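Fold these two proteins, one after the other.
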Amino acid sequence: MSEDVAAATTVPATTVPATAAETSPDNPWPLQLLSQKLRMHIDRAPSAWVEGQVIELNRRGNNAYLTLRDIDAEISLPASVWTKVLDRQESPLERGSRVVALLKAEFWLKTGRLSMSVKDIRPVGLGDLLARIERLRHALAAEGLFSDARKKRLPLLPHRIGLITGRDSDAKKDVLRNAALRWPAVEFEIREVAVQGNTAVAQLLGALRELDAHPEVDVIVIARGGGALEDLLPFSNEELIRAVADAVTPVVSAIGHEADRPILDDVADLRASTPTDAAKRIVPDVVEELARVRQARDQLRRGVTRLVDRETDRLASLRSRPVLAAPEVMVTGRHDDVERLKIRAHSALTMAVARAADQLDHLKAQVRALSPQQTLDRGYAVVQLTDGGSAPGTHRDVVRHPSQAPSGTSLSIRVAGGRFAAQSTGGQEPTDG
């Protein structure tokens, strides 16, 4: 440190640019000034707790050198640590240990070397991992990602199944074999990925998004056999969980591990206990379906048979009725009715004509009795005045009173047998009696 400080104090007091943006080929910074500013900037950066996996660890006297690798990505970072920090651990760190470390960036002014110094380091035990998973589980549940209302129903018979599984894994074989046994025509779109390790999450995400965008994939199965808790951590990764929740295609979780179940089981649209169970639940059993088809056909056949028998009985009942057994009876009966009605109509008409004839005869008798000729036949006569200026034989008014025919008046008298002329000799009023 003393050498770095001494070097820092040797910068000549010249008119150098105040900022890096002001430098130019004609007015550059001294290299030591850049190093000083980098060191000042890095020294202001705070320490940070990071999580990773120890992939290298070498002790050299009082110092130890280790390399940390990201849990979910191919990113590593070398760091140095005092051995006394490592000696504080209850159990010695080993390669493959999952740890959280407090890192501080340090810049060596003289050599221009940036290094990471571990100020503290702690192993992450199973209890810590479980606690972290549970905190994430509760947080995602509070967002509603595990709600049954958002889970999608699986198709009854998927056209094509997307399968995400390990390379040449037993889980893959179990799903393919059991699905083919249940439905031989089933088709798969397989994506083989790493199912543990730091590349697992990235590969799982890529395969999930690719299958979700595939137009022919109706359901996606993420399958893996059992394993230790550390091996199953990718299936509790928050990014993967949110990707499954956002998927349009139904997702089935088939992680063969009943204890310490990963969060993927909660967010998936269907959880299968094992890959074999997933195969049984995503495709129907062709034997069972054929049995159901036969049963349905038998029920349909029995129903049709009952319907035909019932309608046959109805037809037989209808045919046994007299109107169908002897249909001419209906015509004969109507013919008899018509004949009977004709006779009644003829009789009624004959009687009506007879009554009308009698009435006509009666009216004729009345008319004759009231006619002027009948009156004349009984000895009466009709006396009429003769119009003297008219031609012979023409008559005028009927004489109804003696005053109409004074003496000398020419008269025409009509009797039953004819007419004759007469002359009035005068008349008198009728007397009582």
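Now the second one:
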Amino acid sequence: MRIWRTSRRELSLERPLVMAILNVTPDSFSDGGRFSDVDSALKQAEQMIADGADIVDIGGESTRPGSSRVSAEDEISRVVPVVAAIAKRIDTPISIDTSKSEVARAAVDAGAEIINDISGLRFDERIAAVAAENKTGLVLMHSRGEFDAMHSQPPVDDIMAEVAADFRRSAWLAVEDGVTAEQIVLDIGIGFGKTLDQNLELIAKLDKLIADFPQFPFLVGTSRKSFIGKLLDDAPPDKRLSGSLASAAIADWNGATILRVHDVKETVEVVKIVSAAKHAGKNEIDG
């Protein structure tokens, strides 16, 4: 059985896991300000888990286009009370969405067991040491450019080669610092410095990247992102559910093992349908 090892458990990857997005920021592109206090964040986490979330991913710094960096102290003050409250009440894996080692360490001390780094160790390599010391799960996402320019990078000619090269870099750094392969998950970084066509190409050819990195599970996060809005006649984030579910289904079919989403219940239902279709197809081949 394939697993993802965190500091507190082994997560089975026999079916795709649903990672629920919980932003405790005032300015996230989709739900900024809605869950910025502990009580509302805890209620939202409980609802997400009731809806079928396997992991709750807590972020205290928006990475939307045009967002500004916040200090580690401010980020810690946002996320640590929420992590601690959820960890005390609920036995569901908590992920901390940060690219700062100080924040990662504080969140892990408060109960997080996964670190989700959008920079793939580019902004702060010490995150790998935190993951190694605490044996947490570690998500390494592909992105380009500094924080304030991640979404405005000129597109590369070959996005598949670019993403693969970055995965080799980030995974090597993590392993060099003592992180095991069973702790690492790779994220293709949908929406970060990629054109609409490149986002679609990454989802459509996900199986090719997975074949290149068979030792690592893959995470895909398309939920409510701008490429979906562009394809749906400039639909705002709260009108992108159908596109989010369609892209999640394609990613699941092509081998994604973790889906990072806002709409948990609907995505859980998508995973059930895709899994049933895969199982039926396998039985027909085996028969």
